[in-house]
Amino acid sequence: METWELLARECIRDTIVRYNANGDAARWDELEALFAPDAVMDIDGQIYEGRPAIMAMFRTVQLSAVHDDTGSGPHEAHTTMAEWLARGNKPFVRHFTATTQIDVLSETRATARSYYLVLTVHGLDHWGRYIDDLTLVDGRWVFGRRQHRLDAAIEGGRAAAGRSAGGRIVKPL
Asked: In whole angstroms, what is the distance from residue 48 CA to residue 40 CA?
């Protein structure tokens, strides 16, 4: 392995980590910079093309995570967002990525595959895989295409209500 490939791998790991940290903290400018201008985000078949569409999706998800929790229905088994906020806490989401396999195809192209899991105020919410195509743009490794593949979601959790969760809901213990 050559030095440039080691550097590429570490830069790609950094891009993946910054995606989680910036998205969880709603640092939109920093998150947007991780995508190529013509990037594609594929969330279980729902396609967002270009930075503006990708960022609009993130902002919509953030607003629904904070404001769309009535405390009724399946959420009753969990701490609801309303209960969490009433205790004086701030909402949060934490993405964790593991088992990342990076294949450097050239000095400007690479692919990566990772497992992810997501925690919210009620604990484990959902998990799945990221499948990435990365490219070198202006000296930085960025996502050219990022695919989210949901493996399963906890019943009553945030992701369980999503259109792609059907048939992949797990009852909490």
From this structure: 6
**7-63, pLDDT tens digit by residue?**
999 999 999 999 999 999 889 999 999 999 999 999 999 999 999 999 999 888 765
Burial (CB < 10 A; 0-12, 13-18, 19+), residue 154, is: buried
The amino acid occupying position 21 is: A
Query: In angstroms, rounded to a whole number, what is the distance separating the alpha carbons of residues 42 and 54?
Result: 9
> Over the stretch 79-138, which tens digit does the pLDDT of each residue have?
666 676 677 777 778 999 999 999 999 999 999 999 999 998 778 999 999 999 999 999
User: Domain 3-170 carries which CATH code?
Assistant: 3.10.450.50
Please state the domain extents for the chain. 3-170
DSSP letters along 32-79, please?
Answer: HTTEEEEEEEEETTEEEESHHHHHHHHHHHHHHHHH---S-GGGGGS-
- Cβ(125)–Cβ(119) under 8 Å? yes
| Cα angle: 44, vertex 91, 112; to 5 degrees | 35
The model's pTM: 0.84
